[in-house]
Design a protein that fits this description.
5 strands, 144 residues, 8 helices
């Protein structure tokens, strides 16, 4: 876990609240925003303003999450089905405009930063589309 922590640096001995999602996902856990907020509620330092999470509070909670195998990734076939539903023309890709609309206006909307992060990996810059089978292959986590 200390290695995953190296991706973000908060205050002395702490991480910024917004960086915790990155750390959790780096560790192979994929909570929803609601689940992440629950996790943050358990580890945030109420006595220190500024939204920092101290390592000594985070480690025991995250260790339990990892041992309990919580927040597992969505299986590849479920991801594929979700993209196929969005691909109304059944052409194997979704345009950037459509994907942004779906993911920022429906359900649990992506933030602008999340959308930019996803598109930086998913988008084919030549066609301005997301070939979702290629993208899914980048997302799949080997759990062995």
């Amino acid at each position: 876990m200390a290695t995953a922590r190296g991706c973000c640096h908060g205050g002395e001995g702490g991480e910024r609240r917004g960086d915790i999602g990155v750390i959790v996902r780096t560790l192979g856990c994929f909570p929803t925003e609601a689940e992440l907020n629950e996790l943050l509620a358990k580890v945030e330092d109420e006595e220190e303003p500024g939204g920092y999470v101290h390592l000594e509070k985070f480690l025991p909670v995250m260790t339990k999450v990892l041992l309990d195998r919580r927040y597992r990734p969505i299986p590849e076939d479920v991801l594929l089905h979700a993209f196929e539903v969005l691909d109304e023309k059944k052409c194997g890709y979704i345009t950037k405009e459509d994907l942004v609309k779906y993911l920022t206006e429906e359900g649990e909307p992506f933030t602008e930063e999340e959308m930019e992060n996803m598109l930086s990996v998913a988008l084919d810059p030549e066609t301005n589309t997301v070939r979702y089978r290629n993208y899914i292959s980048k997302l799949v986590v080997d759990e062995t």
